[in-house]
């Protein structure tokens, strides 16, 4: 594995353009900037084409002989199927408004990471093969031949885009670069050109219901350990149910919450909240993944992996579905699930059993984000909160791209946050809400072999955190996304040591006073509460 | 994919040097990985490795760190049941270094 340079070195970014035009500048595969190639067993399991051992750094990618034909046909199919793709291929005027808005461009200075140029990687082939001008004039009309080098360039750069859509906020035409990357990755998948960090979770999810491959007894076992910790902190033993038929609500969250810190503290937060409400809900060990890495491979695979959520809701006979803190999960749910695997007409429009609020926004998909659910509880005074229990924290808020920019969920998490902590500081305006900067590791790029890419891509986000850390003493970065919880931890350790990472419901559960709880002396992480720490200091 | 040679036997490893097939594991392989990682194996180190392997057999995945910490505490005494102790044993991180020596694959997903 390549060695990660020191932050001071990585922060030196050159924006000097190469002397040659982009079509004539060869691509260099730099270690640390790309992921391992997909393994044959991961592709075989879900029936993806061309399963074989291959290494991205090797010259021979072991492609089928007619690979070019496959790609051109793949483009033709998608131009017919998706009007958005055809439109985005035709309308860009190369104004460059998007150029410096991409976190990967800011962090690498590589012109091919300008969204306009990333799109041009496919657009040039589109022009050559599908437009009259391009067919006749070739390069003069911005067209170019699809060669093996071009294909490799696609692979390198479509796995250097996290589909965060920040560029599209600034595009006067509203071109959605994420859609272009999505198509780019679909095309690459026709040749078995995936990364293992995506292909592995996809096959796990297909076989075992979640990305990590947690089996039912592992899920229950992991939660049991969390319940032990909750008992230590609150004195209360919680007994959640699994796969329970007839429950009112099915709860689905990303499997990262059931395995890795700090996501596990978020999961403890859910458990405590639902217990306190007396919610009639169940976990599922079958629909045990909210996230969807299939979405990072192809539309069809996203649909296949997603199908288990409605299927499980139907099998258990629940009324509606509540979803945990995740980013891309919500883009998939709110913008695809209903048309992929719906209509879920066997479910009811979600209604909070505690407040009576009907979630009209979820009328069709029948699934509610836990931040909306909790914001509604607080608005209706249903929770007893003591925000001073979070006084050891000075929190800033990372808007996760897919929920914030993608779904417009900007206020609900902030409303909850302000109710459960006393110290909340916003990062600079151009780095939050719809202009939020990506963690740099989304869309399945949160592997370890591409750490340099991740640290470069996450640099703008880290830079904004550094600002509030230095100026306001911020020491905690909150978010509602499992990839964020996993990846921002590494990002903070690298760029802004001294800032931790947490999910929203960890903070909720810290502040929430539970009926019959013992006097709390620590937070969910076992750290002494501020009041206790102060007493100890006096003594 | 690559191969390592342990006592004259060729064994497959993945790009990160982790064992490709769990069944290829034996004490020699573990010692080989430990040497590569610069770890001098003691009884305490073996406790962790053995626990990881037993856990994997039952659950098909490495344990989450919370579980590892608690179970090691139960085996070696409460003063050893913390992340600090595990990092003293395995400075490269218990999840990475100890799993490698135990022959377990790395977990993938939102981790």
Can you give keywords for this protein?
heterodimer; A: 539 residues; mainly alpha; 2 domains; 4-stranded parallel beta sheet; 23 helices; B: 111 residues; two-stranded antiparallel sheet; 5 helices
* Secondary-structure element series of chain A: HHHHHHHHHHHHEHEHEHEHEHHHHEHEHH
Give me the oligomer status: heterodimer
Strand order of the largest sheet of chain B: 1-2
Total tally of structural domains of chain B: 1
Task: Estimate nothing, just give the exact number of structural domains of chain A.
Answer: 2
User: How would you state the average pLDDT of chain B, rounded?
Assistant: 91
- Uncertain residue ranges of chain A: none
Number of helices of chain A: 23
CATH architecture level-2 label of chain B: Orthogonal Bundle
List the helices and strands and how they pair.
The complex is a heterodimer of chains A (539) and B (111).
Chain A: H1 7-10, H2 40-46, H3 67-81, H4 83-91, H5 103-108, H6 115-130, H7 132-137, H8 148-158, H9 166-170, H10 177-189, H11 196-208, H12 216-234, E1 249-252, H13 263-277, E2 281-283, H14 299-316, E3 320-323, H15 328-341, E4 367-369, H16 370-379, E5 395-397, H17 401-404, H18 411-420, H19 451-457, H20 459-472, E6 476-479, H21 482-495, E7 500-503, H22 504-511, H23 530-538
Chain B: E1 2-6, E2 9-13, H1 27-37, H2 43-59, H3 65-76, H4 83-89, H5 94-102
Antiparallel strand pairs in B: 1-2
What do you see in this structure?
The complex is a heterodimer of chains A (539) and B (111). By secondary structure, chain A is mostly helical. Helices cover 46% and strands 5% of the residues of chain A. Chain A has helices at residues 7-10, 40-46, 67-81, 83-91, 103-108, 115-130, 132-137, 148-158, 166-170, 177-189, 196-208, 216-234, 263-277, 299-316, 328-341, 370-379, 401-404, 411-420, 451-457, 459-472, 482-495, 504-511, 530-538, and strands spanning 249-252, 281-283, 320-323, 367-369, 395-397, 476-479, 500-503. In chain A, the strands form 2 sheets. Chain A has a 4-stranded parallel beta sheet with strand order 2-1-3-4. Chain A has a 3-stranded parallel beta sheet with strand order 5-6-7. In chain A, helix 13 links the parallel strand 1 and strand 2. The radius of gyration of chain A is 24 Å and the shape is globular. The mean pLDDT of chain A is 97. Chain B is mainly α and 111 residues long. Chain B has a single domain (2-101), classed as DsrC protein, C-terminal domain (Arc Repressor Mutant, subunit A). Helix content of chain B is 50%, strand content 9%. Chain B is built from 5 helices and 2 strands; from the N terminus they run ββααααα. In chain B, strand 1 and strand 2 form a beta hairpin. The longest helix of chain B has 17 residues, at 43-59. Chain B is globular, with a radius of gyration of 14 Å. The A-B interface holds A 1, 36, 53, 55, 196-197, 200-201, 204, 210-215, 217-218, 221-222, 225-226, 228-229, 254-256, 259-261, 263-264, 291, 293, 326, 446-449, 482-483, 485-486 and B 1, 14-16, 58-61, 64-67, 70, 106-111.
